[in-house]
Specification:
Blueprint: H1 8-25, H2 38-49, H3 54-60, H4 75-94
Length: about 100
């Protein structure tokens, strides 16, 4: 299938962003369901304190709910979960 002329690419992107903004205004969430919970976070923090890599942490964690129940989260999910926790902790300690 031939690629569309580059003239249309910004148009498609703009229409997509408009649609996402409209959906958010209506209360719709964009993206997949979250797979992390407080128990997973506390275990990840414990394992990080033992200086384990994100990949090893992800192998030890198990998703407990949803369509991916029983699977392991990706290392990127572990990184995101720990980063968000660290940012929230930094904001709370600064206040």
């Amino acid at each position: 299938m031939p690629r569309l002329h580059c003239y249309w690419d910004p148009y498609i992107r703009d229409k997509t962003l408009e649609g996402q903004e409209t959906a958010r205004k209506r209360g719709k969430t964009i993206g997949g369901a979250g797979v992390t919970d407080d128990d997973m976070l506390s275990m990840a923090l414990h394992l990080r304190d033992q200086e384990m890599s994100r990949r090893d942490i992800a192998k030890r964690l198990v998703i407990t709910t949803g369509k991916k129940k029983g699977q392991h989260p990706s290392p990127a999910t572990v990184m995101r979960m720990l980063r968000e926790h660290d940012e929230q902790t930094a904001v709370a300690s600064a206040a």
